[in-house]
Specification:
By secondary structure, this protein is of the alpha+beta class. It has 2 domains: 116 residues, Poly(a)-polymerase, middle domain (Orthogonal Bundle); 118 residues, Beta Polymerase, domain 2, CATH 3.30.460. The chain has 9 helices and 9 strands. The relative contact order is 0.12.
């Protein structure tokens, strides 16, 4: 089988239904009553974000990311917003796992990542998020993230690299991975075919990734590459080195 046919067969197997009647959206609607009770009158919206909204999700990954937009008039600070949401979910008998900016929750067997965020004002889509690991906050704009990734037209390459990441057990945040693939294939570096593009991205991870400075396109003060330590980036580099040396695609991603 030609390499592109092989990779496209994997993409077809991992295709995600993003319709209103899909299981991930049903999980969203199941969670919304508990979220509304927690937020009182400060809830602006609950909307798909992350990979699900960008077209970079895989069936075997997190099923849906939801941005929980809280009004700028909410008196709680960002850490309190994050922790009280986690507590409210636990009180509603949802198993949770605290992550960096999100809270993972299981709903009907599905993985849902909730991202509580405080809107800056009534007009913009700028939000502040609590970064639990660093114990600080950051400003970002999820709508700009979605637009940036979809405009790149690299969703297929990103999806393949996300599968590779998962199958290798790598700690590689999705947005960091997405921006890295886009950078790897920018400035005329994309040969054109899916297989060659994925290999170009692996070469980038092997050769340039550890020292590359990746910046949030919605906030130049937010350095995405600082989300991983030197050691964690080196682990990704070594995995990419092994993948690039594989003679067959079956040894890279399945």
């Amino acid at each position: 089988m030609h390499e592109d046919d092989y990779l496209r067969s994997i993409l077809a197997r991992e295709a995600v239904n993003t319709g209103l009647l899909s299981p991930p959206r049903a999980a969203q609607f199941t969670l919304e009553p508990a979220i509304k009770r927690w937020a009182n009158n400060f809830l602006v919206s609950v909307s798909p974000s992350g990979s699900f909204a960008k077209g970079t999700a895989n069936k075997s990954g997190t099923d849906i990311d939801l941005l929980i937009s809280v009004s700028h008039t909410c008196p709680n600070n960002l850490e309190s917003i994050y922790e009280t949401l986690a507590q409210a979910l636990t009180e509603n008998n949802y198993p949770i796992r605290r992550q960096n900016v999100s809270i993972n929750v299981k709903v009907n067997g599905l993985d849902v990542d909730l991202v509580p965020a405080k809107r800056h004002d009534a007009l913009s889509q700028d939000h502040s998020l609590w970064r639990r690991k660093a114990k600080t906050w950051t400003k970002t704009n999820v709508a700009k993230h979605i637009a940036h990734v979809t405009a790149s037209r690299r969703m297929n390459e990103i999806r393949i690299l996300k599968l590779w990441r998962s199958q290798q057990g790598l700690d590689f945040p999705s947005f960091y991975l997405e921006l890295s693939v886009i950078e790897a294939l920018s400035h005329g570096r994309a040969p054109g075919t899916l297989g060659r593009n994925v290999m170009t991205a692996l070469h980038y991870l092997r050769d340039r990734f550890p020292n590359a400075r990746i910046i949030d396109p919605a906030n130049t003060n937010n350095i995405i590459s600082e989300d991983l330590t030197d050691s964690e980036r080196a682990t990704i580099q070594q995995a990419a080195k092994r993948a690039a040396a594989e003679p067959y695609w079956e040894g890279i991603v399945k």
